[in-house]
Amino acid sequence: CIRDRVDSTFFEDRVDIDKIDQSKNLVFDVEQTDIPLAPESENLNIIRVNNDAERFFEMGLYGDAIKNYKVVMKNADKIQEPLYLNALNKIGLALIQLKNYEKSLSYFEQVYEINPNYPNIEQNLKTSKYFVISDFQSLTFRLRHTSIHFHSHLT
After folding, report:
1. In contact, 97 and 127? CB cutoff 8 Å
2. Quick check: 71 and 33 in contact, CB under 8 A?
3. Greater model confidence, 64 or 18
4. pLDDT at position 146
5. Going by C-beta distance under 8 Å and a sequence separation of 6 or more, which residues neighbour residue 26?
6. Do 115 and 121 touch, CB atoms closer than 8 A?
7. Is residue 11 packed enough to be buried (19+ CB in 10 Å), middle (13-18) or exposed (0-12)?
């Protein structure tokens, strides 16, 4: 009996992995996540959605990960604060990978505001701020260069 449960668990996990591979072709509307989960299955569903988000993140499917983490955030309550904070933090990390530095900073700031002792949050804040500043400096340089180039064509 135990072997049957182990085998079926392995099969279920395999099916989930196959679904993840297929998810690249799916379109998901985050706004549809406003529908609350059923109370009796809420914890299980949030954990499953969080696990899917973690898999997407590890596979580099950051857009899919963000969508799933947002579902977790919308359906997690104070009792599930660790899931909520993890979702905020991972969205920030995913946004860094997607080069959306300013938005990543806002997610890290939210984590820090709730729990300043959250693992690696100070480093994540520093990294995000560094990229925001670097991105701004790069943009400023490009604008100056474009302006100089533009002026030279006018004279």
Report:
1. no
2. yes
3. 64
4. 61
5. none
6. yes
7. exposed
Number of Cβ within a 10 Å radius of residue 103: 14
pTM of the model: 0.63
How far out from the chain centre does Cα 66 lie? 4
* Residue 90 identity (one-letter amino acid): K
| Cβ(70)–Cβ(91) below 8 Å | yes
For residue 33, CA distances in Å to 25, 58, 70, 75 come to 19, 22, 8, 9
Residue 75: which of 67, 84, 66 has the closest Cα? 84
Q: Which of 26, 30, 104 is nearest to 72 (CA)?
A: 30
Please report how the helices 62-75 and 42-58 are oriented relative to each other, as an axis angle in degrees rounded to 10. 160
pLDDT at 75 over 70: yes
CA separation for the pair 16, 18 (Å, rounded): 5
Cβ neighbours for 63, distance < 8 A, ≥ 6 positions apart: 94, 98
